[in-house]
Amino acid sequence: MSSDTPNEPVISFQNVSIGFDMGDVLSGLSFSVAHQETKVLIGESGTGKTLTLKLAAGLLRPDSGTVRMLGRDLATLSERELLAFRRQIGFVFQEGALFDSLTVADNVAYSLREEHVSEDEIAPRVLESLRFVEMEHTLEKLPGELSGGMRRRVSIARALVSRPQVVLYDSPTAGLDPVTSQTIITLILRLRDTQGVTSVLATHRLQDAFGLANYRFDGETGRVVPISNNGNARKTGAATNFVVLRGGKVYFEGSPQLIEQSRDDYLRRFLL
Ligand SMILES: Nc1ncnc2c1ncn2[C@@H]1O[C@H](COP(=O)(O)OP(=O)(O)O)[C@@H](O)[C@H]1O
Ligand SMILES: [Mg+2]
């Protein structure tokens, strides 16, 4: 069914526009995400980061332009095909968006139950996902009993449980203190480096982006280590690149080094 070709980007936006009563929010947005790449979407509040992720997930349709993901033009998919498509991607919503009345285990199991996966299979997969985020001790807790950082971990476990090829993270560190933010970023890079997922991460924190770009998870030692500049670390293929949104378009696209060296006043605001 899928028409994957080896060099086709995993995600591509071509001239995508979407607007509301107040006018266009995205107007001619184009960018693409390669296999196993982490694309960091940076932009001030209201620049359309969340909209971009929702368009990528097929939760919204653009007014014009084309969104392609995993070899499919999303506009050509029926509602049923879209549901099947969404099972291949994980979405970590802004603020986590857990169901408050369900236990942690039931939150993580939710999408599997919707897919009618057998309970025999659900239990070990829920445990595996919660172990990955080091939250297996909270199975029977309610989200309200957890700290903000723990809830964010659970929402990552929930996105992982379907073993997605692509994970979309909407501001995963928003509202968290710097230390907790770093633990979330470490989790995201562990996922990238152990499972090889392709991801898009929206944030207004440039530190998040540099954390992803400058460190990698070393499977042999189980530690997060700096990526050296001489290129050997790039052999994981896990490149991190930025897309800076401004005025509904891509204002800047490129590597972390390029953004760090930039003299552009608008970009430098994010570096402070
Ligand atoms: N469903 C909607 N109806 C009307 N306006 C919307 C809707 N969704 C988003 N917007 C507007 O689009 C703009 C971009 O929103 P968003 O993607 O949430 O920005 P960001 O995530 O970068 O902060 C905001 O001004 C928001 O008010
Ligand atoms: Mg947002």
Structural class: alpha/beta
Can you count the helices? 9
Can you write the helix and strand succession as a string? EEEHEEHEHHHEHEHEEEEHH
Q: Identify the bound ligands.
A: adenosine-5'-diphosphate, magnesium ion
| Largest sheet data | 6 strands, mixed
Tell me the layout of helices and strands.
Layout: E1 11-20, E2 23-33, E3 38-42, H1 49-56, E4 64-69, E5 72-73, H2 79-86, E6 89-92, H3 104-114, H4 119-132, H5 148-160, E7 166-170, H6 178-195, E8 198-203, H7 206-214, E9 215-218, E10 223-226, E11 240-246, E12 249-254, H8 256-261, H9 265-271
Parallel strand pairs: 3-8, 3-11, 6-7, 7-8
Antiparallel strand pairs: 1-2, 1-4, 4-5, 9-10, 11-12
The structure holds adenosine-5'-diphosphate and magnesium ion (MG).
Adenosine-5'-diphosphate (ADP) binds at residues 20, 25, 43, 45-51.
Tell me what the structure shows:
With 272 residues, the chain is an alpha/beta fold. The chain folds into two domains: 33-59 and 78-88 and 167-272, Rossmann fold; 95-163, no CATH class. It has nine helices and twelve strands. The strands form three sheets. It has a six-stranded mixed beta sheet, with helices on both faces. Helix 3 crosses helix 4, helix 3 packs parallel to helix 5 and helix 4 (119-132) crosses helix 5. The radius of gyration is 18 Å and the shape is globular. The protein starts with 10 loop residues before the first strand and ends with a helix. Residues 232-236 have low confidence and may be disordered. The chain binds adenosine-5'-diphosphate and magnesium ion. Adenosine-5'-diphosphate binds next to helix 1.
